[in-house]
From TrEMBL:
It comes from Marivirga tractuosa (strain ATCC 23168 / DSM 4126 / NBRC 15989 / NCIMB 1408 / VKM B-1430 / H-43) (Microscilla tractuosa). Belongs to the class-I pyridoxal-phosphate-dependent aminotransferase family. This is 2-keto-4-methylthiobutyrate aminotransferase apoenzyme. SUPFAM superfamilies: PLP-dependent transferases. Keywords: Aminotransferase, Pyridoxal phosphate, Transferase.
Amino acid sequence: MTEIQSKLPKVGTTIFTVMSQMAAESNAINLSQGFPDFPVSEKLIDLVYQNMQIGHNQYAPMPGLPQLREAIANKIKNTGGVNINIDTEITVSAGATEAIFSSVLATVNQGDEVIVLEPAYDCYIPAIELAGGKVVPVGLSLPNFTPDWQKVKDNITKKTRMIIINFPHNPSGAILTQDDITALKELLEENPQLIILSDEVYEHIIFDGNTHLSVLKDKFLARRSIAVSSFGKTFHATGWKIGYMVAPEAIMKEIRKVHQYNCFSVHTPSQYAMAEYLQNEKNYLGLSAMYEKKREFFQQAMQDSKFKIIPSYGTYFQVLDFSEISDMGDMEFAQYLIKDKGVASIPVSAFYSDKQDDKLLRFCFAKGEETLQKAADILCKI
């Protein structure tokens, strides 16, 4: 058999698949993989079905349906007061992962350096490596996962092409502050070769009266940034794999060159459905309140446990510190929880390129209260 030289020799099956499979085999409560266990809106499902029945089943335009791009632009205008050109600055993608891959492949060249704030979602590094770029990991400051912009600055060279940020942050739930935006602008002002790839898939899940500070809301940042969003995360339909990216015309022109060969276009009836569903702002503006109640419920249920609760200001994830419970590493402890206790989580070391282990686990609280209570009851007895 012909030998294949792997382009991603360090990459195996994702931690999310591994832990979910282990949870299924042990019949454990799955708070590992980030997907809701409650239904998609019946209205949205009906809209997809209606558009399939009407006959909207052939290829959509490569950048996305014009009416969906217009609805996205209106959403951005309503939530951030920003005007986006629907013809040149928005592209509908096959989920956020495809948007990230297409963006990196279009803008990162052989030998370019890309700073990744860690812990980081696991698709960033493979995309950079496939583009021929060099990954430069920079750790967020614990325990609250805040960016150390001086450390970022110290790692910037003439070869640094991109900084990838993700706020609200997976796995920690940290968010950006205005000081962070100011610091980010200063870095771009000092380094004209830099662009920002901002993974904002949890933009509509933010708590405690805070506001999502998108790179699109700052005119200077917006001229040098790519913002990625996900309808799957927003509308509890992760299996639909539909999202979008926003970037200045010159950058988007290059991204579309990759996107058209990466997937060409996205499921047509879903695009028609999303275009109509977005007309009602309540369908996405009420999301934070709903998930904040779930966060409060899970945190309250965990009050009597020996786990330390790390503040979560957004997303539907809660990081718990188990250092007072066990000396095990986080992967070993996560496996123990699944096999011996029946609760699945994700070890945070999986989000670090060097597998940094701070005895932290990520739990997904996008579940029904009965499921969360069951899991908390078990965890509180440990």
